[in-house]
Amino acid sequence: MASFFAKRLGYLLLTMLVVSFAIYMISEFTPGDVARKVLGPFATQRQVELLTEQMGLNRPVVVRYVEWVGKILTGDLGYSTVYKTEVNNIIWNRLGNTLVLASIAFAVIVPMSILLGVASGMRESSRLDRSISLFSIVTTSVPEFASGVFLTTIFAIGIGILPGTSTLDRGGGWSIASQLVLPVAVMVLYDLGYVVRMVRASMIEVMTRPYIRTAVLKGLSFRDVILKHALRNAMIAPFTVILLQINYLVTGVVVVEAVFAYPGFGRMMLEAALSQDIAVIEAGALFSVLVAVVTQIVGDFGYMLLNPRIRFS
């Protein structure tokens, strides 16, 4: 167990080091001078030269990269030229807003996907299985912006029971809870179908195993066979898939946040990319990679606990 954690921790540190270097080099060698990107297109050449000297941009790139990593480790994420404040004053607030969406969506996706996937896998090729499979394929195939516009047209414009935007501002007469309904619904519809199909495929495979037939021949009820023998083994493979959805829910909902004007992490990254806000882009990219690596490590650890063959090997 200790060696497992040591290897995964080393993997995390090495990945973050490589990614940080790649992010810094990409932002450094993209077209245009870094000082020009910070000051904007209307700055004079003299202003660009002064900022270049003040920021030490005329020094070797390796030296500047080491200093940048040192600042990151001490919590200094830099200054945002778009929001005119420290990145720390923006990123954590935006990240907190996104985590609210992600937590609610994850709390809905996990039980629903397990319930629908198990129900579908228990009765392969049945009418219920075909209905759930069709629902999963359709919802996953519809892009987020399309489902967002569709739901907004129905519930915001047609019926008028929900707001069309989610700015987290109570001044419009809508509660915060009502503003979260449509963004969460879009995230659930888009992500639910994929997880349901993973659970269904794993359940179908488990139901054909010899120990399931043995349990049935021993006279166990169908309910006991499913709950005591099939369900835990069926969840081994989808467990990692379910955890990896955290990466999408936290860092991949740019379209959802843009459609509903939600002040979240993804929208912040979009605005920073369009405005070439280097400090925000670098900090956000590092955090996105950190979330991806951590969820993968946690998934591997959970997979090891669920699967004795991996644990004992």
User: What is the level-2 CATH architecture name of the domain at 88-276?
Assistant: Orthogonal Bundle
Low-pLDDT stretches are: none
Reported by name, the CATH topology of the domain at 88-276 is MetI-like fold
Mean pLDDT across all amino acids: 85
The strand count comes to 2
Please compute the radius of gyration using only Cα atoms: 24 Å
User: Strand fraction band?
Assistant: under 5%
Seen as an oligomer or otherwise, the chain set is single chain
Q: Would you tell me the structural class of the helices and strands?
A: mainly alpha
**Helix content class:** over 70%
How would you summarize this macromolecular structure in one to three sentences?
This protein is mainly α and 313 residues long.
What does it look like?
It comes from Hypericibacter adhaerens. The chain crosses the membrane at residues 9-27, 99-122, 134-162, 174-196, 236-265, 285-306. Belongs to the binding-protein-dependent transport system permease family. By secondary structure, the chain is mainly α. It has a domain at 88-276: MetI-like fold, CATH 1.10.3720. Helix content is 77%, strand content 1%. The chain is built from 15 helices and two strands. The protein has helices at residues 2-29, 34-39, 45-54, 61-73, 88-122, 127-141, 144-158, 176-207, 210-217, 222-234, 236-251, 254-259, 265-275, 278-306, 308-312; strands at 79-80, 85-86. A two-stranded antiparallel ribbon has the order 1-2. Strand 1 (79-80) and strand 2 form a beta hairpin. Helix 5 (88-122) packs antiparallel against helix 6 (127-141) and helix 11 (236-251) runs antiparallel to helix 14 (278-306). The longest helix has 35 residues, at 88-122. The termini are close together.
